[in-house]
Write a structure and sequence with these properties.
single chain, 297 residues, alpha/beta, 9-stranded mixed β-sheet
Length: 297
C-alpha cells in the first residue's frame, strides 16, 4: 500500500498556542522594535476592501532581488498573518524571515517568488481564518476571507505585478489558523491554487474540515505540505496525522503529499521560519525533481 512520505526529524501547548492564535493582537503597548525587513519588502499603497466583511486589510509585498531589472514573470505565494512574515517590528512573537529565506534562495539560483502577505484581522483572526463556525470563537468568516484573496486580491496582484497567474504557479501558506485556512483554500479553489503549505494547522477549531477534505478531494497534482511540531500538543499532532490519512484515503498521490513531524518543535514562528526553505523548495520543485525526492526517509 502506498503511504505518505512521513519525516521525523530529531530536534505547554496552552501558552504557545494561545500566543499564536492571537497573533497580531496587541493587548498592551510594547517598546518600538527596529525593522528587520529587507529592501524587497513593501506595503501595498492602499488598504483593500474585503467584500462581505465590512472591513479593510493591509497587504505586504515581497519581490525577489532581480524583479526591477529582470523583466521576468514569477510564481506567487499568498501567506496569512502578514505582520509576522518579514519584520520583527510588526511581528507578534518573532518573524518567519520570509524575505531572508527567499533572498538566499534567489542568490543560490534555486527559487524566486513573489510573496503576498495578508495582514491578520487581530481580534477577527479566529473567525476570518476559519470556514466553519466555532461556539468558542464565533461565526465563520473564512469563506468571505478566502473569496477576498481569490476574487479581489489575486486579480489586483496579477494586474499590477509580473506574476505567473496560472494555478501551477500559485500557492498558499500559513500556520495555525493560517494552516487551516490554507488547506481550505486549496480544496475550495483548486482552479486557483495548486500547492498549500499547511503549518501547524489548527484543525481542533474546525472539526468539519476532515469531512470537507474527504468529500472534496484536491486535484491529484496538488501539493500538500503538512507540518507539525511534536511539542505542539497531543491533540494537534493526532489531528495532523488524521488529516494526512484522510488525504491519503481520498486517493491523493503519496508523491504529492508530505507529512513532517518535528519531535522537539513548538508552536512558534521560529519553528516555522526554520522549516520554510525546505517546504518551499518541495512545493515549487519541478515535477520530476519533486517526485524523485518523495521517497521515504
Amino acid at each position: 500500500m502506498r503511504r505518505f512520505r512521513t519525516i521525523l526529524v530529531p530536534l505547554s501547548l496552552a501558552a504557545a498556542l494561545c500566543a499564536s492564535l492571537s497573533a497580531g493582537a496587541a493587548d498592551k503597548p510594547e517598546p518600538a522594535k527596529a525593522s528587520t525587513a529587507l529592501p524587497g519588502v513593501s506595503l501595498l499603497a492602499e488598504q483593500l476592501d474585503m467584500p462581505g466583511l465590512n472591513r479593510q486589510r493591509q497587504v505586504r509585498m515581497y519581490l525577489p532581488p532581480g524583479y526591477a531589472t529582470s523583466g521576468k514573470r514569477y510564481p506567487v505565494l499568498y501567506m496569512h498573518d502578514g505582520q509576522n512574515l518579514f519584520d520583527t517590528a510588526t511581528a507578534y512573537a518573532g518573524e518567519w524571515k520570509v524575505d531572508e529565506t527567499l533572498d538566499a534562495l534567489a542568490r543560490e539560483g534555486k527559487l524566486e517568488l513573489i510573496v503576498v502577505g495578508i495582514d491578520n484581522g487581530q481580534e477577527k483572526r479566529m473567525t476570518e481564518l476559519n470556514a466553519w463556525s466555532n461556539p468558542r470563537f464565533g461565526a465563520a468568516e473564512g469563506k468571505e476571507y478566502t473569496d477576498f484573496v481569490v476574487k479581489t486580491l489575486k486579480p489586483l496582484i496579477d494586474a499590477r505585478y509580473r506574476t505567473l497567474p496560472d494555478r501551477a504557479n500559485t500557492a498558499i501558506m500559513g500556520s495555525s489558523m493560517g494552516g487551516l485556512a490554507s488547506h481550505y483554500a486549496l480544496v475550495q479553489y483548486p482552479e486557483v491554487f495548486s500547492k498549500a503549505g499547511v503549518f501547524s494547522p489548527a484543525y481542533w477549531t474546525a472539526r468539519p474540515a476532515f469531512d470537507f477534505v474527504a468529500q472534496k478531494p484536491a486535484p491529484k497534482d496538488a501539493r500538500v505540505y503538512l507540518l507539525m511540531g511534536g511539542k505542539e500538543g497531543r491533540e494537534m499532532v493526532s489531528d495532523v496525522k488524521r488529516m494526512a490519512e484522510v488525504v491519503r484515503k481520498s486517493g491523493h498521490p503519496a508523491a504529492n503529499t508530505v507529512l513532517k513531524i518535528v519531535p522537539g518543535a513548538e508552536h512558534n514562528e521560529a519553528f516555522w521560519a526554520g522549516e520554510l526553505r525546505e517546504a518551499l523548495l518541495w512545493m515549487f520543485a519541478p515535477a520530476e525533481t519533486k517526485v524523485a525526492s518523495s521517497s521515504n526517509k
